[in-house]
Amino acid sequence: MSMRAPSGVWRMHAGIRHVILAAVSMLMMLAPATAADDDEKGPLAEFYSYLPAAPDIHLPEFSIPFWTDDLKKAKRAYKNGDYERALKLFRRASDDGNIVADWYLGHMYSQGVGVPRNDAMAYSYYSRVAEHYDPEETDPNRLRITVDAMVRLADYQRRGAVNAGLQPDPKAAAQSYLKIATAYGHPAAQYALGVMSIKGEGVKKNPQQGLKWLMAAARKRYAPAEAYLGDLYWSGQIVNADRTRAVMWYILARESARPDENPEIFSRAEQIEASVGADERIEAEARARVWEERYPAGKVKAAGD
């Protein structure tokens, strides 16, 4: 299976990108950053984290329905843990061309939720979503989900999945992340670029640039970026070792993360906090509160901020 992104995914020139960024900034001023999914703790919450919700304006009708009865029933079944029913309904909605159902199916297969993990199937479903990418999309919800799918395809490019015939291609992944990060400020893409720049994976090694990418993702309260910064300060890698600052970042990461998707962050946070004294914990908590006031979880800056 080819690791190339679906055809048409990157049909974007500089002028269109500026228009998109301006539109995103305008949306940010008009509406709060809330999930149209109405389930901010579910798997869809993450891709809703980087763009604001749509303002209450008239949007054109789409030939492919975004929310359908089957999809609503499937989401309810998924939330209740009835994955067998959710799978059946998501597949039915997917057959009708619903990209939200495709995204959920990609998530279920990539995580092994309700089905055996199957990276080839996950890659296929995410590709279906990404094929609907349109840089001139007027519905921010559809834009969110298609961009998110492109991030996940880049994840597969980066790490590969040999059992599915997907060979790692870090260089191509870095190019994909860069386009997504610069056009949309997606925190997962910024985080990936940060780690890859620090390690010299797919890009020229540049630790200081990597730190900048990590900080950009951390300002959007992206838990893996916060945790990575915590590890850097704990170990003294790239930055001067600072136990208090390390604990601060893990306090923030624990608040941003979801236990079901990032259990390692919670266990690592507990381990680090247990290794410092009371004074260090108090100072770390105070620093975390200052950061949280400036960059509260669930509130994100517009692309480019």
From TrEMBL:
InterPro entries: Sel1-like, Sel1_AlgK, TPR-like_helical_dom_sf. The keyword Ribosomal protein does not apply. Keywords: Signal. Residues 1-35 form the signal peptide. It comes from the Bacteria. The keyword Glycosyltransferase does not apply. SMART domains: SEL1 (SM00671). This is Sel1 repeat family protein. It comes from Aestuariivirga litoralis.
